[in-house]
User: Fold Elongation of very long chain fatty acids protein from Anopheles quadriannulatus.
Amino acid sequence: MSFLFIEHDRVSGFWTWLFVLSKLPELGDTVFIVLRKQPLIFLHWYHHITVLMYSWFSYTEYTASARWFIVMNYCVHSVMYSYYALRALNFKPPRSIAMLITTLQLTQMVVGCAINIWAHGFLQTAGKNSCNISEMNIKLSIAMYFSYFVLFARFFYKTYLSTNARKGKRPIQVTASSTATSGHQYIDSGSSLTGKSDVQSLLAGGQAASSKIKAQ
Assistant:
């Protein structure tokens, strides 16, 4: 688990550097959701902000285990953004693809926790200078990955397994923030709301109903 892969392997160093920089433009997802006045769920902004801070912190330490995290993230995101590209082109991938992507994200969190546990055990047996990863980094990383697992598992249940999800009824905030046009990271289950205009119509209808109640 040497940290020299960043310094000695120019290809790995280059893609690691790009990975760290990519966390800034990924915030554009959040900006678009806010500008379009769509509901912003906690999972979205929490995930983006914490990944950015942890990635930049780990890069300053040349964290050895980072190569695992980077490869996993690149792989999952390549599938996820391909899904978004198809949705943006008005293709309708089957619901199973959305479920697969969220499952991949959950798997990523489990593997992330396992790697941190392994790294901690390695430091305890081989010595703290045997691997370029700090105890603080391990604690922050496992807390981050575990919190992601809980949040993504909750999202998966509410979106695909809950009673409302099976009946095709989904919370407005989940649907609105996971349309293809929003570029949101959390996959919808293929509901009838497929674009910004549909979401706006739904919200407008809710506001109209609220106004009638107040008038009465």
Residues 1-160 form one domain. The chain has one domain: 1-160. Residues 6 and 118 are 21 Å apart (CA to CA). The first helix runs from residue 5 to 8.
